[in-house]
Amino acid sequence: MMTDNDPNADDSSMNRRPILKTVAAGGATAVLAGCIGGGDGGDGGNGDGNDGSSDGDDGSSDSGGGGATYDVGLVNPYSGDLAPFADRNDRGSDLALSEINNESVAGGKINKITADSETTSNAGVSASQKLVNQEGVDVLTGPCSSGVAVSIAESVTIPNEITHIMINSTAPGITDLEDNGYVLRSCPSDAFQGQALAQVVSDNDISSVSLIVVNNDYGQGLADAFQKRYKELGNTVETTIPAEQGRSSYSAQLNEADNPNSEGIVFIVYPQSFQTMIREAYQMGIQENYEIFGAESMVSDEVEQNVDPVAINGMKGTNPSPPIESEVYQTFAEEFQNEYDRQPTVWAAYAYDAYMMLGLAIHSAGEYSSDAVANAIYEISRPEGTEVSSIAEGKSELDAGNAINYQGASGNVNLDENGDPSGSYQHWEVIDGTFEMQGFVDTGQ
Amino acid sequence: MALELQLVVNGIVFGSIILLASIGLSLLYGIGDFANFAHGEFLTLGAFITFAGYVTFGLPIYVAGLMAFLFVGALGVLIDRILMTRHRDSTPIILLILTIGLALFLRAVIRLQWGDNQRTLGMPLERGTELLQGSVGWIDYGIRITSTDIAIVFLALVLATGTHLFLTRTRMGIAMRAMSDNKSLAKVAGIDTDTVMTVTWALSGALAGTGGMLLAMQTGVLFPRMGFNIVLVVFAAVILGGIGSPYGAMIGAYIIGIAQEVSVMIPGISAEYRYAFAFLIMIAVLLYKPQGLAGGRW
Amino acid sequence: MALLEARDVVSGYGDVEIIHGVSIDVASDEIVSIIGPNGAGKSTLMKTLFSLVDCWDGTVTFRGEDVTHDQTSDLSRNGMCYVPQTDNVFPTLSVEENLRMGGYILGDPPKENYERIYNHFPILEERKSQQAGSMSGGQQQMLAIGRALMLDPELLLLDEPSAGLAPDLVDDVFEKIIEINEDDTAILMVEQNARKALKFSDRGYVLEMGENRFEDTGEVLLNDSKVGELYLGG
């Protein structure tokens, strides 16, 4: 939830107030109420629309004069366990930025400043401290792993009242952070994926499993959600075995998972550890005796390229998936293909949406500050608004004083009161060493 | 609770991997009186040289391993001649900082050369052969072994034996032991302690380089922190065995290797805690024998 | 010209000057003892002669050459060897390995070198595979001397060879020293057992407070009442 005693917020709204009063006299109270409430009521929508329109006017006059630059930080795992994610985040965000900066939002351009999280909390926190304290960014995006994201949120972004848009951090625990509304994400919580994975395992008639789980917020969160749903579906989790990243051997974990009561083993680990694990599992003959499943973290080029197909063929799991049939996604995928000569992953779509929402929020707020973005970003994707899927559409609707509902490449990205979008998932199976999507999961909820 | 012999076998394999690193670390400590914190990076480098030989140049794996042995050994010589020779009489804290700096430097070089992303050795997958199957009483003697496992244990033992012969049969090897016994007497006796130190670096590096190759063969995955991630366990083995004693280190490596694998059979100890268990064993032994198993002897 | 000539040697540790200009000669085939009270600087002088302690001033010549600042290993190579007072064997090495290290400079020392030492000390041959650290103090002392003899030196520096030995063993060690001397090795030694040492020494020096105090043949010093009273315990 927003605080209204934040000095920065006061400064910026001080300048605004006369404008609000004159241009949107009637709606002003509603606007503030809406902001403070963090978007818990749709009735603020009109007011916001008006607000956006007045600032949009300011914005267009600014853009004539060359415009402002809005520094946004991206903490990205350029090295470490999750390094494969860094490119996806860069590609997705750059695609969005080229559109945003072509059109300009609130008369300015977004300047992305990156820093390496090294996939560790220490490095991630110091990288974001640098972005916030030295580069002076008002909005931070990234990092990747949920554990690192929580460290950054707790020690950098929340205390400094920096709006923090997480792109890949899917740990359910993030939903419950006491973040005063500064932390939100463009990817869905694993609570949803855990349910989908449980559904898939259950649908395969596997009624008891061992879980091998990376021992961080991501793994714990996903495992908890899995376990809860899997039990609701009438099945048993025999053991949950934590596994640390970067070990040279996981034979002990695999031995523990090698449990005669289990019919399957579910891996909720990262690609690097998984490669070592699955190699050892094969040597131990695990694949002969158990059905194996994996979470989305497994789905990566690295696993496809580096793991011998015989070790993973037949493995099944889930992956967050954008609504690939939707027009928005197809346009995004086409542009992505043109730009990078490859098909986007869902993570690129989340990164793309994060920056698109950020762009629209800046335009809607008419200014760039942490509080302005945090307030506006909930409002540009409400079901009541006019559906838009590009910056140009969004700007023209906002400038006309209408509320908008951004339709993202990754889905409708309607943020709930915790700043979480709901996701959609596909289930996959490894066929000839490749992850093949098999259609959307019906979680029956 | 059943004793699974498989876990003991796994422990022997893991013990063999840390064996070579432990011997080298212990030699440097015993002879040079300092802990080489760059030892983990020696392992990493050995793994990546193996990668370069096996994947980049397409050489047979053991030729690639020989490259790792020679290259990291040569690196040890270089480090000693360029850097450490100026610090023969430096205080332990300076040597500590020096080797930590060296570790960071080497890791950066590895990152520059091979990048941050993980690499894969891509050795063919092999299903373990079932040697035994079944159980007697509370002992489950079902064992599965791969040829890689056997190669790892064999190579480690061959090199450990080679090191033993070197230390007991050659003039240089005996001089290393003499210097570890009493450095000032070694100088009085006319032993060229400077050269002995350089040879120690070479041997320590070569053993760690080969250890890195074994590590890469076992995990299949290479990344810049791989050596650093196990160097603490190597230290545990060395301290358990009696720091400075290569023979103690050999015993320590196998005790630590087996203990941490077998620990998962103890009810309530999850696999996550096996490293912690290895250190617990170390502490327990040190309480009983404060100087480690070798008790200040070789 | 004497084999070893030390002239006005000044040395010490850190800032503390311990030897304040001592002069000593050792001729070929001589046994020379340095005696004096504790803290007289006897051991420091030995270490200075063997370049284990820096010589601050003065000169040391050996066989007519200035060796004041020579490396320890060069001195060994050229015929001067030194046996420290304590910790003078490698405890975890076998007897044979200890001797081998004594001849390190030679590469692999020839068999004769071992045999020469085994002739002096038959016990070492009997125990050549035993760990040095597990032997008795007297045997270790023999080994220490044996190690230094591997290079067949012209001058042997012995720092208190009888330290810590039982009285009958002291005599054994002294006997061996005389035997070695008869084999054409000059001996310069520091001794606490001053009376016994002077008896078989050709000459002796009395050091006190880092300075020469008396110098004469062993016999004269033994019979000098002043020396006897002050340094030989009456």
From TrEMBL, chain A:
Localization per record: Membrane
Alphabetically ordered keywords of this record: Membrane, Transmembrane, Transmembrane helix
SUPFAM superfamilies, sorted: Periplasmic binding protein-like I
Protein name: Receptor ligand binding region domain-containing protein
Organism for this UniProt entry: Halorubrum persicum
Entry-linked InterPro entries: ANF_lig-bd_rcpt, BCAA_transport, Peripla_BP_I
Segments of skewed composition (Gly residues): 35-50
Region described as Disordered: spans on this chain: 1-20, 35-71
GO CC terms, sorted: membrane
Domain of life where this protein originates: Archaea
The Receptor ligand binding region domain, residue ranges: 94-431
From TrEMBL, chain B:
Identification of the protein by name: Branched-chain amino acid ABC transporter permease
Subcellular location: Cell membrane
Family: Belongs to the binding-protein-dependent transport system permease family. LivHM subfamily.
GO process terms (BP): amino acid transport
Pfam families linked: BPD_transp_2
PANTHER family associated with the record: AMINO ACID ABC TRANSPORTER PERMEASE PROTEIN, BRANCHED-CHAIN AMINO ACID TRANSPORT SYSTEM PERMEASE PROTEIN LIVH
Coiled-coil region list: none
Membrane topology recorded in Swiss-Prot or TrEMBL: Multi-pass membrane protein
CDD domains: TM_PBP1_LivH_like
Keyword Transmembrane helix: yes
Recorded superkingdom: Archaea
A GO CC annotation given for this chain: plasma membrane
Transmembrane spans: 7-31, 51-79, 91-110, 150-167, 228-259, 271-288
Main subcellular location of this protein, as a coarse class: membrane
Molecular function in Gene Ontology: transmembrane transporter activity
Keywords: Amino-acid transport, Cell membrane, Membrane, Transmembrane, Transmembrane helix, Transport
Automatic annotation (TrEMBL), chain C:
PROSITE patterns per the UniProt record, alphabetical: ABC_TRANSPORTER_1, ABC_TRANSPORTER_2
Domain ABC transporter residues, every copy: 4-234
Gene Ontology molecular function, alphabetical: ATP binding; ATP hydrolysis activity; branched-chain amino acid transmembrane transporter activity
InterPro entries according to UniProt: AAA+_ATPase (IPR003593), ABC_transporter-like_ATP-bd (IPR003439), ABC_transporter-like_CS (IPR017871), BCAA_Transport_ATP-bd_LivF (IPR052156), P-loop_NTPase (IPR027417)
Pfam families assigned: ABC_tran
Keywords, ordered alphabetically: Amino-acid transport, ATP-binding, Nucleotide-binding, Transport
Domain of life: Archaea
CDD domains reported for this sequence: ABC_TM1139_LivF_branched
Gene Ontology terms describing biological process: L-amino acid transport
Family, as annotated: Belongs to the ABC transporter superfamily.
Protein name: ABC transporter ATP-binding protein
Source species of the chain: Halorubrum persicum
